[in-house]
Write a structure and sequence with these properties.
Blueprint lengths: L3 E4 L2 E4 L2 E2 H8 L3 E5 H14 L5 E6 L6 H10 L2 E4 L2 H9 L7 E3 L6 H9 L4 E4 L2 H13 L4 E8 L21 E2 H13 L3 E7 L10 H19 L6 E3 L16 H12 L5 E4 L3 H4 L3 E12 L4 E5 L8 H5 L5 E3 L8 E7 L8 E9 L6 E4 L20 E6 L2 E6 L4 H5 L5
Parallel strand pairs: 4-20, 5-6, 5-13, 6-7, 7-8, 8-9, 9-10, 9-11, 11-12, 12-13, 15-17
Antiparallel strand pairs: 1-2, 2-3, 4-14, 14-15, 14-19, 16-19, 17-18, 20-21
Helix pairs in contact: 2-3, 2-9, 5-6, 8-9
The chain binds pyridoxal-5'-phosphate (PLP).
């Protein structure tokens, strides 16, 4: 579901024409629909509204401050994975008591920073990290609030790069060792056990992996209770999938219905960490055709956005729909590869797409690029990163300026 639609064969974000935005801000350009991500946030809240639930938007999906600020205004908390993300959310005035911090490699500087900021809790991913947090908290004269991230050893049935809950994955603490580690955590002077955490992967489209994981986690929580280890929070992570092409992801409601029977009985506060589900369909990448090139076996449409702007096709083989901004002159469709200007064969946005004849200067929209689009963008090939615009009905505003050539060298010393 999103608010990018054709009106009289011209593409709009809500009530704002994409052509005018490209004209004003140039391309490549990320355009976000506020109504889309706000509605998705409330969908997931509504699905869990009968439990005491805190939704912590996963900052790494899209970390633009204007989007974070909107999320905060809606009531969202934040799931962070670095000191940089902590800085971002504090900058926009996030309530520290709505911040949870995961990640396998938290440095001592990052741990100190999070302790000083009084975040809700650390989601701890190893024994060494637990010891480090205990030690650093001790030195700071504090008690660290923590959950252990449990690796339940289930297959999330998704791309192997975003499958995070199998025993061979680097994430979380093996469910078979976790009880012993909770016991030793309980004895640590500067550790305050607050919860149990899991996050099994991303772009999960069926509730089955969740059920498998939550079932195991529920048993684990019962085990903790038997040991007299009290917790207050159960964090079941993010990972809800979205439609990129023909996927039929379960709705937030279906996910919620499936997992609630396992978790409701404990009377715990529930934390969710959705990223893609909230922001994925709420963004498009607008790009301009530079050249057409007819090959012997393929035709190429060469556009001004590349893998530095959107790396998902190159990194995961991801599919994003690509549609013309203006369908008025669409005569017949023919197959082509939509490729960027970067000097890598992996630099493509789409392969074998049926598109109308596109003159140089025509605009295309790469859909469902709100999540892991701009947040993964780089300056590869010394390309300044794109501008970002947020649309709200017929209003819009620039939320990140296009980078300049000067920005590219600003930190260099020569
Ligand atoms: C990336 C991540 C998420 C969000 O994943 P989505 O698939 O975008 O919902 C949630 N929790 C943790 C710990 C993550 O690393």
């Amino acid at each position: 579901m999103d608010y990018f639609n054709y009106k009289r064969k011209v593409l709009f974000a809500e009530d704002t024409g994409i052509g005018a935005l490209a004209e004003k801000y140039g391309t490549p350009l990320y355009v976000y629909s506020k109504r889309t991500f706000v509605e998705h946030y409330h969908k997931i809240c509504a699905a869990f509204s009968d439990l005491d639930t805190l939704v912590c938007y996963s900052v790494k999906a899209n970390s633009n401050g204007a989007i974070l600020k909107e999320m905060r205004a809606q009531g969202s908390g934040f799931d962070i994975v670095s000191g940089g993300e902590l800085f971002r959310v504090l900058e926009i005035g996030a309530d520290p008591k709505k911040i949870v911090y995961a990640g396998v490699g938290k440095t001592s500087e990052e741990i100190k920073y999070a302790l000083k900021s009084n975040i809700l809790m650390f989601n701890i991913e190893s024994v060494e990290e637990l010891k480090a947090i205990n030690r650093i908290a001790g030195a700071a004269g504090k008690k660290a609030d923590v959950a252990l991230r449990i690796n339940p050893d289930v297959d999330a049935l998704t791309h192997h790069y975003v499958n995070t809950g199998k025993k061979e994955s680097k994430f979380g603490i093996d469910i078979n060792f976790a009880l012993g580690i909770y016991k030793s955590a309980k004895k640590m002077k500067n550790i305050n056990i607050k919860g149990v955490d899991m996050h099994i992967g991303s772009q999960i489209t069926t509730p089955i992996p969740y059920l498998n994981a939550v079932g195991k986690i529920a048993q684990f929580v019962s085990g903790l209770n038997r040991e007299g280890i009290k917790i207050e929070y159960l964090n079941i992570g993010g990972g809800l999938g979205i439609i990129y092409n023909e996927e039929k992801p379960a709705t937030a409601e279906v996910f919620a219905k499936a997992v609630k029977p396992y978790i409701a009985g404990f009377g715990l506060k529930i934390i969710l960490e959705p990223g893609r589900f909230i922001i994925g369909n709420a963004g498009i990448l607008v790009t301009k055709v530079i050249y057409n090139k007819k090959g012997r076996s393929k035709n190429f449409v060469i556009v001004d956005a590349g893998m530095n702007d959107l790396i998902r096709p190159a990194l995961y083989g991801s599919f994003h729909k690509i549609i013309p901004e203006n369908f008025k002159s669409a005569a017949k469709l023919s197959p082509c590869d939509v490729v960027g200007p970067i000097c890598e064969s992996a630099d493509f946005l789409g392969k074998d797409r049926m598109l109308p004849e596109l003159a140089s200067g025509a605009l295309l929209a790469v859909r469902s690029t709100g999540a892991y689009g701009m947040s993964m963008a780089s300056n590869y090939n010394s390309r300044p990163r794109a501008a970002e615009v947020m649309v709200d009905g017929s209003k819009h505003r620039l939320i990140r300026e296009r980078e300049t050539y000067e920005d590219l060298v600003a930190k260099e010393k020569f």
